Amino acid sequence: MTTIALATCAGFPNLDDEDRLLIPALAELGIAAEPQVWTDRSVDWSRFAAVVIRATWDYSDRHDDFLAWCEQVSADSLLLNRADLVRWNTDKRYLRALQGAGIPTVPTLFLEPGDAADAWHGEVIGEAPELVVKPAVSCGSRDTMRYSVRESPEQISDHVGRLLADGRVVMVQPYLEAVDTSGETALLYFDGAFSHAIRKGPLLALGVEGERVEGLFVQEQIDPREPTADERAVGAQVLAAIPGDVPLYARVDLIAGPEGTPSLLELELTEPSLFLSFADGAPARLADAISRRLAR
Fold it and tell me: How far apart are CA 198 and CA 276, in angstroms?
């Protein structure tokens, strides 16, 4: 029987409930899947036919180490998704490239270490009444905060300044009202084919110290969703703009802009929750995609 590893973190050594659904689906195809903690130096990654990145949700605290691990595993096995794609996708400045490719994206101002902490004012943000501040390398909404521009300008600058002082690139985005009304739409793709979609409810409460996340991620309100034709069209556009070969899995997170047009919030290619329990057949579709990669 072919054996693969499902890479996870020490906080979830046996994966989460969603990812564990993949194990029996792979077994049906004659593929044994073992959860393995990516930081465990005793693991011999070369004994696996493939290593599929799943719940490596602590990578942002050790970004350089994680990228080095991806390169190491790529030399010993088949890493999914690819190491070069992980390097590109774990720094959210990839949004610049996708915006340059003509994809509608949420307006984003990037501030680099050395920039002034109050440089978040500007054309990119416009007259947005609320802003979201977060680092360009992060996951699980850690170090992320929603602010009122009128009531909290000093707090915004303080948050930006702390991140910049820590040597991190900072993202500043307008908080879009659609998050509180229709929520985000996340489109899930396996091997380039659309699988299913979910709705993500509001995550950041105004005025709450949301950047102080306990654990590896903020809990989300998730429901199944049927995407609109416009959302499917933007999702296909995003997928076509991904550099190199089609990834094993991709999650395209969209939010309606002021004009109602779906805009890209994030493209998740590294360790996204895939919400396998929210659509019939989703675990089997991902297992089939993995099986096809092994057969190539």
Answer: 10
